[in-house]
Amino acid sequence: MVRVKTFHTADIMQNASKVFKINDKEIAIVNFDNTYYAIDDLCSHSEASLSDGEVYNCKVECPLHGAEFDLTTGEALTLPATKPVKTYPVSIEDGYLFLEIDNNA
Ligand code: FES
């Protein structure tokens, strides 16, 4: 695992998200009620960016077909998605968000 510095907390509006790119991977960092979560940006159903989705009730809704994903676990809560998306641990230090990412991510 590597620890990667990303955005300042002030860079992500409440109930919104921002994409962090690393090694060809795109991770959506989501601010839900000033708690931060990180999930793979690519929806597990098809080609859609979850960072473009609506954030509410600790979930993000895919903007393409409306599947909802749990921000804590990445679990697909509603169809048409059936597979989870990967989640990443987030920590805050000096106002910056850090992700724990597999070395080969
Ligand atoms: S692409 Fe996300 S639900 Fe279909």
- Major sheet description: 4 strands, antiparallel
Give the DSSP E fraction (strand runs of 2 or more residues).
over 45%
Radius of gyration: 13 Å
Low-confidence stretches: none
User: Which small-molecule species are bound to the chains here?
Assistant: FE2/S2 (inorganic) cluster
CATH architecture: 3-layer Sandwich
Strand arrangement in the largest pleated sheet:
2-3-4-8
Oligomer: single chain
Helix content: under 10%
Summarize the helix and strand pattern as letters. Answer: EEEEEEEEEE
CATH H level, superfamily name: Rieske [2Fe-2S] iron-sulphur domain
Briefly note the structural class of the backbone: mainly beta
Count all strands and give the number. Answer: 10
Outline, from the CA principal axes?
Answer: globular
Continuous helix count: 0
Query: Number of folding domains?
Result: 1
| Cα separation of the termini | 9 Å
CATH topology: Rieske Iron-sulfur Protein
Mean pLDDT across every amino acid position: 96
- CATH C-level class is Mainly Beta
